[in-house]
Design a protein that fits this description.
The protein is mainly α and 294 residues long. The chain is built from nine helices and two strands. The relative contact order is 0.13.
């Protein structure tokens, strides 16, 4: 269930991009109903209505998974640690908040600031979903740091830098041609200046990831940390190349959709790498102060 939630979040991230890239942001011009007379899309609304309503249905499916996770983790207590319940609960709370922001987006005719917020709220949900999946794979044993503090600091820096790249990337997108509807407003910023800031942050991210990869190998960090940093280098390189091609080919929709998928995968990989710097340990090998509260 945790894995389903994570992958469905990634699908929803891309499907939201498809709504924007196909000018379907107002395919269902009201919220929460699709029209004043119908909860669902109608044939008269055409393909844009189906695309927008399909995105809403994915949000409903994600909410059902989140509620199921909360139900399972609470009914199985105390077998499951409290952290599991918190991570499931975070998803169950943030998913409807994202849906509400989506509704405000429609009701404000795709306000560009709300549009950027709607995209960025996806990432706290992704973080909670990634953390819950990491915990379920590790089991219910007490947890403690499995790497030195310097490496944990590096991986935390990676996650923070990825978040900064995403935030500026959302602003870059808000100034571009794909706003969800031809009449939708764009952000009043200089696209070239924002793109340069975005590029500089990507270079910083790549350098930090290379440093993390070298440090993880030198310190003989757990394999998930070493593998995660290597995968992250590959993803960032591919994403950078894709962004370069996208910029010089006037941001074709297909490449933008792939770029959004890459953004989601990079964030999840960075989060997974950082989360892997802690892990299950034998309670007998730790002092009471080292045990993570259940």
């Amino acid at each position: 269930m945790a894995a389903t939630s994570l992958w469905l979040n990634l699908v929803l991230l891309v499907s939201g991009g498809v709504v924007r890239l196909t000018d379907s942001g107002l395919g269902c011009p009201t919220w929460p109903r699709c029209t004043e007379a119908s909860l669902v899309t109608t044939p008269a609304m055409g393909v844009h209505g189906y695309i927008e309503f399909g995105n809403r249905l994915l949000g409903v499916a994600l909410m059902l998974i989140a509620v199921a996770l909360v139900t399972v983790t609470f009914r199985a207590r105390p077998a499951f640690p409290a952290a599991w319940r918190c991570l499931a609960g975070a998803q169950a709370l943030v998913v409807p908040a994202q849906a509400l922001i989506g509704g405000i987006l429609v009701l404000t005719d795709l306000n560009p600031y709300v549009r950027s917020l709607h995209f960025l709220v996806s990432f706290p949900i992704l973080l909670a979903a990634t953390a819950l999946l990491r915990r379920t794979r590790d089991g219910t044993s007490p947890r403690a740091a499995t790497t030195r503090g310097e490496l944990r600091l590096l991986t935390a820096g990676l996650l923070a830098t990825v978040s900064a790249v995403l935030a500026v990337g959302a602003l870059v997108t808000g100034t571009g041609p794909h706003a969800g509807d031809p009449k939708a407003a764009r952000l009043p910023f200089d696209p070239a200046a924002l793109t340069q800031i975005h590029t500089d942050l990507v270079y910083l991210l790549l350098g930090l990831t290379l440093a993390t990869t070298i440090t993880a190998r030198a310190l003989r960090a757990p394999q998930p940390v070493q593998r995660g940093s290597i995968v992250l280098v590959a993803l960032i390189a591919a994403q950078g190349l894709l962004g370069y091609v996208q910029y010089h080919t006037r941001v074709p929709p297909l490449l933008v959709a792939l770029h959004m998928l890459g953004a989601g995968l990079i964030f999840v990989t960075a989060a997974w790498t950082h989360l892997s710097t802690t892990g299950p340990v034998s309670p007998d090998s730790l002092l009471p102060s080292q045990l993570e509260p259940r």
